[in-house]
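Let us practice reading a record.
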Amino acid sequence: MELSITIVIIIITVLVSIGAFNNEKTMDELIFYPPAVTNRNQWYRFFSCGLIHADWGHLIFNMLALYLFGQKVELYFAEIFGTTGKILYLVMYITALAVSVLPTYFKHKDDYHYRSLGASGAVSAVVFAGILFDPISGIGLFFIPIYVAGFIFGFIYLLITSYLDKKGGDRINHSAHLWGAFYGIAFTILVARIFSDYAVVAGFLNQIRNTDPSDFIKFGGSAF
């Protein structure tokens, strides 16, 4: 059985993350450390930081979100872009790792006390690409039986993440989450224009217009 790109990414990320949990040298070599990029040209850190995570909770949350959304987005890419779909999906994920921490780099490029790690920026890109393709399907928080249409969830997520990024002080790189989400939206719209005839924005808006507002929020059961 052929493994999906999403599953391959998850396997590699889990293996590297687990290996780095108890190996400080590996963690130091892969983590996003802006001064190492500025002074030693270690550009690989823009990508390698997405292979490691702070702890089990961080790793599990990111990989579960990637599994739930990535499988779906990968299928959309294959359906819309044909044989190049999987390649474009992989390109989006890998480039999102770097793009999502670019603002972080410029803010902390000479900050010797700053470090960042995790695949959250790339996962955010995948999640928001999924929302573009399917804005109506419900998204909920774990163990809470309330499901909100993806486009509403995404809007709330962006507002909260932007606020937390400006507030700061919680040791979470909200900037990477925010810019990863924006990048996922921009990448999807751009490649759809270049490689297909599918109008992403029109499809997004039409699905919302053609759905009864009472279906935007569901209580109990499972996602619709």
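A brief commentary: The CA atoms of residues 13 and 144 lie 28 Å apart.
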